[in-house]
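thought: fold this chain, then report.
action: predict
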Amino acid sequence: MKILIVPLITSPKADAAYFITRNLADLFTQEGHSCAVCASADNQFHNVSLYACSTPKRPLFPRHTRVRSYEEWMYAKGALAKEYIIDDTEAVQEAINQYKPDLVIVMDRIAGVVAARRKNVRCWAVVNNAMYKNISFPSEILQGMNQALAYFRQEQEFHLRSVYSRCERRISFGVTLTQPFTAEQDVTRIGLASIYPAKAAASDRLLVCLDDVKLNKTTLYRAIHDAFLGAPYPVYAWYKGCKPLKEKNIQFMASMKLDYLPGAAAVIHDGNDYIFHQALAMGIPQMIVSGGGYLRSYNAQTAKRQNFGVVLQEENLSMSSLYETYRKLVSDDVYYDNTRWLMTKYEKEGDLNALLQYL
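observation:
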């Protein structure tokens, strides 16, 4: 079978869409299927055919600056602009023409749905519960997308979830307590967006991954350095613009390496959806640096509601707040106990292998 993956990767080799795409490609190729990805070469995918894509441009003078809803987040990324969707649809159509896939899997790329429908190819969409929250947003946010849909003679939409409702299948990762869906939403649940991790020996290391935080790299370096330098445990840290540097117990990394996650004592991240679910599946307590992103905020609220993690608001991040919030996480057993309890729920939901039955 030939499968084309069409993700919106906003941070090459770092965001959730990148890791899910990489895992899907590995799974399909290992099972003997042919796989291709329509994404930027910056992501350096291996063992797959790679097709070019259009790059969204963030609005220079956005009329709407909130990002509470999925629609507002997509608008802020430039992914709802008419010109982008038209150009991207043509790029995906060209990939379909050349690769001739049996299935297209879309992640936050409207063009993937439009092109698959125009070419009459099966299409799946990866979704999350935060997309389905009833949050009001200015209707003109969707104006560019609807102009692009009209250009391709497709139906106008009032919510982005309506676009994905036209796909053959909608897939979500997580358990009911972290990703609740109603029967009407018709979402196929998969426990984990990877092959279930092998049990790793427990360690005292801390992993810090801050990709979407808006603070500059100097501020992040100083906060991490001053909070954890000299601590009696190793710290592996990465943020956008991070340069490789070893200082006593802290290793600043050139890229986000999630190889250090299995067996970690804890992880500090910015609400990255992939890390969020991986940490729960591995029984690793987490601290979330929450910002204005719709999914970052949703995951942070879930951690607080289920009491398996602690939250620090991005605007309050400093050396002292970083250390004190982390100390709260590791000094109270309730977070560890609740995380381990949720880990058993993930074990029952299965992993990425479950997707194979639907091909």
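thought: worth noting. The first helix runs from residue 16 to 30.
final: tokens above.
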